[in-house]
Specification:
Blueprint (H helix, E strand, L loop, with lengths): L29 H10 L14 E2 L11 H7 L10 H13 L4 E5 L2 H12 L5 E4 L4 H9 L3 E4 L20 H11 L4 E7 L12 H14 L3 E4 L3 H11 L8 H11 L2 E5 L9 E5 L2 H7 L2 H6 L9 H13 L3 H4 L1 H15 L12 E5 H4 L9 H13 L1 E2 L1 E3 L19 E5 L7 H16 L7 E5 L5 H4 L1 E4 L3 H13 L4
Parallel strand pairs: 1-10, 3-4, 3-5, 5-6, 6-7
Antiparallel strand pairs: 2-8, 7-8, 9-12, 11-12, 13-14
Helix pairs in contact: 1-16, 2-12, 3-12, 4-5, 6-7, 14-17, 16-17
Bound molecules: pyridoxal-5'-phosphate.
The site of pyridoxal-5'-phosphate (PLP) has 14 residues, from α4.
Length: 482
């Protein structure tokens, strides 16, 4: 918290920026929201943005850019090969992380594709604190598998542990020994662990994981997509980080990890991505895949304007006055909802507030997709689009059976520097209304289930008639209000 208010009861997160470009929003009447939800197959990914009041689907590629980022885009150097924009980006990577080698790729999953192609062979395992959807899809596609080694507390919805994304170090060592280091393609450390609620790892734990990797001769790969939020938590929750500069933390991590990759749709408030490292050998292992899948080595499938935005964004990801905005707004939203009695993932993490949908509708079976159902209910209630992060977002097992998620989460993403506090309060208020009417919420069933990453474009329908009942109750409680 950068600024302390005179009256403690007035204390709210204070933005250290002002809004100079705005976008008009629309809030449709509730009957329209029901129609749009059903037309979208009850999948919030398939809603049109124009039909959404608060887009809380994600924090990816929708963060507000700064004046300096938009200004930087004007100096983009359009060239297929040898663009100055790329060399400015490379310079920023060197400055922020200290890494010499940079492979641009169009977004985070493109980096994952290259990593999987290069290092994962059939039968190999990859170890990680927790999987991410696209990461796992790339690894399994080339015949590898994923083993999750987050501390047991990480998947406990409510906890006081400040770093729920931490690895269980004992299990990490045991698993490497069990499979043998030669069978471990790499250990992936996911900063700001997305699927368990944007939960951070401590610096101490990340460095210890890197040490274990070095000890066994296994590669360490840091997914830094959510590192900027993670660094905010290190600075505010971990004593040894309090007096370190953010840059010192970036450098220390980069010195210890073999390979780092990131989605610049998150890290750096932009679009794009990159794999970076100190070691020439790793660069050479992977470089062939950039022209093959992405584009020439000096643009990697990224528009040069976005490369400029990414460059400026990387510098901004060092600035605590920018870094604090997301986590502080999320903490505020989590507290408002929790004070209403809504089961939330605690402590608050980065990237968004997370509702524990399993506790929200405790009698709903996993295969009726509780988090997906609560997501649709919230869209109907308030034009708010969240994202299901539960069983629906899982892949089926190879034998076709459902893999039930460890946590059924509804994520309310908080794109950085985008929402005002009154919008966040509106969101908490509508969540409270859905919570008070939770007994009306029913499940969902597939009408079209894609075989891969089904949550992106599969369609479902309500089981029974619960959505119409929810609209009737809304009309009763809110009258003519939107
Ligand atoms: C931790 C993490 N890694 C990787 C990715 C994939 O990045 P992208 O969406 O840019 O492909 C994401 C995206 O949400 C993420 O959160």
């Amino acid at each position: 918290m950068a600024v302390k208010f005179y009256k403690p009861e007035n204390q709210v997160p204070l933005e250290m920026h002002k809004v100079r470009v705005v976008q008009k929003l629309s809030l449709l009447p509730v009957e329209e929201r029901l129609r749009k939800a059903q037309e979208a197959g009850n999948n919030t990914f398939l809603l049109h943005n124009k039909d959404i009041f608060m887009d809380m689907l994600t924090d990816s590629g929708v963060n507000a850019m700064s004046d300096l980022q938009t200004a930087a885009m004007m100096q983009a150097d359009d060239a297929y090969a040898g663009s100055e924009s790329f060399f400015r980006f490379k310079e920023a990577v060197k400055d922020v992380f200290g890494c010499e080698y940079v492979l641009p790729a169009h977004q985070g999953r493109a980096c994952e594709n290259i990593l999987a192609e290069t290092y994962v062979k059939p039968g190999m395992v990859t170890l990680m604190n927790f999987h991410f959807t696209t990461t796992k899809a790339h690894i399994t596609r080339v015949g590898g598998s994923v083993i999750e080694l987050v501390k047991p507390e990480g998947v406990k919805p409510q906890s006081t542990l400040p770093f729920k994304g931490d690895f269980d170090l004992k299990r990490l060592k045991k698993t490497i020994e069990e499979y043998g280091p030669e069978k471990v393609a790499f250990v992936r450390i996911e900063a700001g662990t997305n699927l368990i609620g944007g939960q951070p790892l401590s610096l101490e734990n990340m460095l210890a994981v890197a040490d274990v990797c070095h000890h066994y001769g296994v590669k360490s790969v840091l997914d830094a997509s959510l590192l900027q939020d993670n660094i905010y938590f290190m600075k505010t929750r971990e004593a040894q980080c309090k007096y370190m500069t953010t840059k010192e933390i970036y450098h220390l991590l980069a010195d210890k990890m073999d390979i780092i990759y990131f989605s610049a749709r998150k890290l750096g408030f932009a679009r794009g991505g990159a794999i970076i490292c100190h070691n020439k050998q790793f660069f050479e292992d992977m470089v062939q895949f950039v022209p093959l899948y992405e584009g020439f080595l000096t643009y990697g499938g990224i528009d040069v304007r976005s490369i400029e935005a990414m460059t400026q964004g990387l510098y901004e990801s060092l600035d605590m006055e920018y870094l604090c905005q997301g986590p502080e707004f999320i903490e505020y939203l989590v507290k408002e909802c929790a004070d209403y009695g809504v089961p939330m993932i605690t402590p608050a993490g980065g990237l968004g507030a997370h509702i524990d949908a399993q506790a929200f509708v405790p009698n709903m079976p996993h295969d009726q997709y509780p988090a997906g159902a609560v997501a649709v209910a919230l869209y109907i209630a308030g034009g708010i689009r969240g994202m299901e992060r539960g069983t629906l977002s899982e892949q089926r097992e190879p034998d076709g059976t459902e893999r039930f998620a460890e946590m059924e989460l509804l994520r309310l993403g908080c794109p950085r520097r985008v929402f005002t506090l009154s919008q966040i309060k509106y969101c908490a208020d509508r969540v409270k209304w859905v919570w008070d009417n939770k007994e009306l919420i029913g499940g969902l069933k597939w009408t079209m289930e894609p075989p891969v990453l089904r949550f992106f474009y599969g369609t479902l329908k309500e089981i029974g008639h619960w959505q119409e009942d929810l609209v009737a109750k809304f009309k009763e409680d809110f009258g003519d209000s939107l």
